[in-house]
UniProtKB/TrEMBL annotation:
GO biological process assignments: translation
Keyword Protease appears in the UniProt entry: no
Keyword Ribonucleoprotein tagged: yes
Subcellular location: Mitochondrion
Primary location group: mitochondrion
Name recorded for this polypeptide: Large ribosomal subunit protein bL32m
Keywords of the record: Mitochondrion, Ribonucleoprotein, Ribosomal protein, Transit peptide
Entry function: Component of the mitochondrial large ribosomal subunit (mt-LSU). The mitochondrial ribosome (mitoribosome) is a large ribonucleoprotein complex responsible for the synthesis of proteins inside mitochondria.
GO cellular component, one term: mitochondrial large ribosomal subunit
Compositional bias annotation for Polar residues: 173-187
Source organism superkingdom: Eukaryota
A GO molecular-function annotation: structural constituent of ribosome
Amino acid sequence: MLPRFGYMLNVLKTIERNVLHMFGHPPRELALVQIYEKQPTHPKKSFSIKDIVGDGFLLAVPKFRRTIEKRLKRKYGYPEYVWKMLVPKTNIKVCNECGHHHERGRLCEHCYKKVEIETKEIQAKIQEKLGNSPIEKDVIVLYEGENPPDTPKEFWNGKRIVEMKKERPQWFSKNLLQKSTQQPSDSTDVKPTDLA
């Protein structure tokens, strides 16, 4: 292998001498020359995001459009996991008092509005009479035409009476304001007494 390589090298040198001899006397060997030019030094420019953005601004936008199936799943859910479709209610009943519809197991909203209004009136009356000081004593609410119950004086110790200047509503019985936990007694009277 080496003798062949040497032979080829000698042939190339001979061709080089004969061909280049026609154009004058070039140097005996060919060589690569690199010319080094010193580049002018520019001051380093500081990089900022403003160079990229310019006058506009970048937004994080999705690369692909969300498919209709995915949109509907996000909106309505998936039957096996969370199903958010509108399902008709079958637990609706009619109130016996006012005739409005409400869910079974819940208070009638229309009837409860009356209770809410009455409660707010009682609270306003208590605040008007007792002020903003904390109420540490029991409050007894009496409507027009009602007398305090005949009880011993010890019963009234530490209690305050608030009088409402109107008749007691029919649906608002006295036992609604009685405490559910009371001391056991030996009396044979059925509680609550004196109902409207």
